[in-house]
Amino acid sequence: MSKPIFAMLILATAISAAAQAQSQSRPSAGDGIWAGDMACRGNRVHGTANWNAKLRYDIRDGQYATSYQNPESGHKTSYNVNIDETGRFSLIGSGFRTTSYDIRLIGQIKDDKIEARGNWGIQDCTLSLKLDPIATREMLASRYAPGPQPGPAAQPGPAAQPGLARAPQAP
């Protein structure tokens, strides 16, 4: 390999590493602690009732994922939350009760709030979340502070935290 090509390869590698480090050293759009409510309307034809859930998402790098299985009923729920660089919010997943169902809610961040609409199986749902500025500031400060950081402390999962819902379960 000639010296100019080798030098260009080293420079390209250094630029790539710097760009990757920069992208990991700042929060993505939507990163933070989001909390709120989901309300789903029952479906009389299929015999489902209205239900509500309190939710809290710790969005990091624009993503959050959860999965839950009720050991008694076998009911499974799994979904991913994504917030892209434009502030578009999506909650996409699936579940199984007696049959499988899809989960899809779409929304947008506006003024530190997310309003999303969609379906949880056959039920029409709305989701309203607000950014918790104090918890978000603490999370971002600990995650993106300059210099070496100690490893993350063990944190209880969302289902273990008092007052927080596990993945919502359709009735």
Our measurement of the CA-to-CA distance between the termini, rounded to an integer number of angstroms, reads 66 Å
Helix content: 10-25%
Rg calc:
20 Å
Based on Cα principal axes, name the global outline: elongated
Number of helical segments with 4 or more residues = 2
Characterize the main sheet: 8 strands, antiparallel
Annotation, overall tally of beta strands:
8
Please list the strands of the largest sheet in the order they lie side by side.
Answer: 2-1-8-7-6-5-4-3
Q: How much β-strand is present in the residues?
A: 35-45%
| Structure class | alpha+beta
Q: What is the succession of H and E elements?
A: HEEEEEEEEH
Report the average pLDDT across residues: 78
Low-confidence stretches: 1-23, 153-166
Outline the structure in words.
It is a single chain. With 171 residues, this protein is of the alpha+beta class. The chain has helices spanning 3-24, 133-144; strands at residues 32-40, 51-59, 63-69, 76-83, 88-96, 100-110, 113-120, 123-131. The protein has an eight-stranded antiparallel beta sheet with strand order 2-1-8-7-6-5-4-3. The chain starts with a helix and ends in a 27-residue tail after the last helix.
